[in-house]
Amino acid sequence: MAKRESADEVGQARAVRLWTVAQANERIAELSELIPEVRAWVDRLRVVHAELLRLRGLWGTEIDAPDLPDRRHKDRLDQEWATLSRRIEETIEQMRADGIEIKDLEKGLVDFYARRNGELVYLCWQTGEDRVAFYHPLDSGFFGRRPISGRT
């Protein structure tokens, strides 16, 4: 008996793009470049955050004073924080809107919404794999991956 989809799953299927294996494979080259780029933005965001924390520890409640000796440095870090945060959020949101989800940025694990035998599933790809070759139900993760056989 086929698994019944929840109302949330049905709503998601209507709200996002559903991918075929061939369509997902066409995005692999782009994702192979994009994932490391987003990872680099996140790494830089960590550095900026650490520097902002260092300044806050150094200046305490004076951190927002207009005459702060490190004002230009702090302002530059605040601007970089805002720019990086916006870039990351917009990129991830655009991917979600396309029916693509980054599940683990460090591992480069990406899922594409799809239908397989009438069931809403994720097509699963990880950086380093040359093609989308696995899928898993929405309620299971990476360890629930199954090889794709046939067409999706």
State the gist of this model:
This protein is α+β, with helices and mostly antiparallel strands and 152 residues long.
Task: Write the SSE topology.
Elements: H1 7-15, H2 21-59, H3 71-97, E1 100-104, E2 109-116, E3 119-126, E4 134-137, E5 146-147
Antiparallel strand pairs: 1-2, 2-3, 3-4, 4-5
Keywords:
five-stranded antiparallel β-sheet, alpha+beta, 3 helices, 49% helix, 152 residues, 5 strands
Q: How would you describe the overall organization of this protein?
A:
With 152 residues, the chain is of the alpha+beta class. The protein has one domain. It contains three helices and five strands. The protein has helices at residues 7-15, 21-59, 71-97, and strands at 100-104, 109-116, 119-126, 134-137, 146-147. A five-stranded antiparallel sheet has the order 1-2-3-4-5. Helix 2 (21-59) runs antiparallel to helix 3 (71-97). It starts with 6 loop residues before the first helix and ends in a 5-residue tail after the last strand. 14% of the residues are buried. The model has no long low-confidence stretch (mean pLDDT 89).
